[in-house]
Amino acid sequence: MSEDTSYSPGDLRNTGMRLKHDREWDYELDRIVEAVDARDAETVGLQFPEGLKRRAPRVADDIRDLVECRVLISGQPCYGACDLDTYLMKRSDVFVHFGHSPMKETDKVIYVPLFSNVDVLPIMEEALSTLEVPSESSEVGLVTTAQHMNRFDEMRSFLEERGYRVRTRRGDDRLTHEGQVLGCNYASADVDAPQILYVGGGKFHPLGLAMEHPEKDVVIADPVNNVVTLADTEKFVKQRYAAVHKAMDAKTWGVIFCTKIGQGRWDEAEAILDENDDAYLITLDEVTPDRLRNFDFDAFVNTGCPRITTDDGPRFHKPLLTPGEYDAAVGNKPLSEIGFDTFHGTW
Amino acid sequence: MSEDTSYSPGDLRNTGMRLKHDREWDYELDRIVEAVDARDAETVGLQFPEGLKRRAPRVADDIRDLVECRVLISGQPCYGACDLDTYLMKRSDVFVHFGHSPMKETDKVIYVPLFSNVDVLPIMEEALSTLEVPSESSEVGLVTTAQHMNRFDEMRSFLEERGYRVRTRRGDDRLTHEGQVLGCNYASADVDAPQILYVGGGKFHPLGLAMEHPEKDVVIADPVNNVVTLADTEKFVKQRYAAVHKAMDAKTWGVIFCTKIGQGRWDEAEAILDENDDAYLITLDEVTPDRLRNFDFDAFVNTGCPRITTDDGPRFHKPLLTPGEYDAAVGNKPLSEIGFDTFHGTW
């Protein structure tokens, strides 16, 4: 295993962008061709997350080599299974969403998760020295992301063979698999164990885990960057407190309702509008600093994707809060009660 | 009249952003309230172009003071009458689009053009010294933008009183008014006159005019920046030739079909796909450098808004061509035949 000298314990800012491993993806062409045949499809829509968009033409070629059809590629930004390109979906006979596990699969919509082929056992071996040993606490919760879900049984066996009692659950409707977490949903970690082992890359998922389960130790085994860390929420909490404090003086509020199919929380938006005459509803799909810059509000509440609020928040020209943080800013609840914003249900 | 020392003849890069005049807009609240009453509307959707988005909360307040309803504000970017927020439109009982003249008005959709209150006569007076005098050529074509359309009769009278025979026409379906031009449509300048007087701001409209009507002199009277210029297309043509030359080596092409309601040209996209196996269809609404950067194509053809291709083109990581320029790049027609990309019909 190669050494990562940039590793700094507790620093969650490392992402999986600098890959140490080559990846080969299985685009599940057979399943796509089968659906095209079954539905007698003339048009096939393809949607890729940002990091995989460059594969689109090769996948299109592969499909057209196997079956006669017109392929349409979504150029919309895409950040999750919640983020289907509904325009293209409606206009395709078969619609394939790559890179995320299903939020709601139908005859027409195929999710192709694109599992990573990274070996997770070496970094799990390394994580053992950070986990409590089975003699002190046998229980460990095990969670991972969609990307590594294909190795979940392997992960479980690895821990069990070393004497751990592995606690897992599926979570809720928004999650496809036992043990799966999303950046907006950690219900699968709600298990009877004092520690959680998160196997996966990225910085946001383990942060959310630690925020959602402050009573548990969250050990991060990142097989992409080859690092083991303990989740540290301190910086994150300080940043959120600062945003809430800045928003406390706000006179006018822009309340964002996200129009993406799996990111709309109308009830949350409506509750704010009903109680606050200085709150105005803004509907949009992509929530970006550029798009909000032209609006002259003192602060914003984002009822859409929680990651945008907390991860991208500092890039916006005015404080951007989660619904829970809004409640603290206007005095509906004490600041100490703000938690991590999570998202439940599908659409 | 104040002097603009930054004025440089023929330079079309001045925009109307540094306003010399205050503007007061008429939001036509009576017409909105009437529609809300007539349709017994519970929800009113409002859409503003970028420069007017900051007015949204005040307009929302004014409407709610006059009639009971829920106001929803579109946060989508908006650049023209072709660019309705269809998500919000479908979900509002009355939908108001501010800042552009109607492309297709319905019972539900109200366009409020927001005419400028800038006096156009002083700059027209100044333009007389650049126009050919009536004794040499009495005919002059007169065009303007939606923003100054309320003063079109005044402009016409001004010229007629000075001995000109003013030639005007409506153009086509895409245009609401006699004498109106859009950035993508100059059919109203297709009149029997050797010179055109364009009254308006911005850089793109007069450039398009001059490109579309190379046999005419295009005199620009800009009442916003207080400058008179002659349109000069040389720099523009060089930039476009350079883009086409760069794209001549392209092996793979991304063909953009814009999903905005008034910006889709499916036939143009399909024609390219049908003749070129190395062309791939990409569907998206906002066509931006960021969104195309993740695609690994050698060049792109944009069948959507022509302004994005030619005005924003140099900001993209790969050559972005109009359909006509694509034909030149792949050898379907000589480079000398590429013209300005225009857009006809509504949707």
Summarize the model shown.
Two copies of one chain form a homodimer. Chain A contains eleven helices and 13 strands. By secondary structure, chain A is an alpha/beta fold.
Characterization of the model:
Two copies of one chain form a homodimer. The first copy, chain A, has 347 residues and is an alpha/beta fold. Chain A contains eleven helices and 13 strands. Chain A has helices spanning 29-39, 56-66, 86-91, 121-127, 152-161, 204-212, 234-247, 266-275, 289-293, 306-311, 323-329; strands at residues 43-47, 70-74, 94-98, 109-112, 139-144, 165-167, 195-199, 217-222, 227-230, 253-258, 279-284, 299-302, 320-321. Chain A has a five-stranded mixed sheet with strand order 6-5-7-8-9, with helices on both faces. In chain A, strand 1, helix 2 (56-66) and strand 2 form a beta-alpha-beta unit. The longest helix of chain A is centred in the last third of the chain and has 14 residues, at 234-247. Chain A starts with 28 loop residues before the first helix and ends in an 18-residue tail after the last helix. In chain A, 50% of the residues are buried. Chains A and B meet through helix 2, strand 2, helix 3 and strand 11 of A and helix 2, strand 2, helix 3 and strand 11 of B.
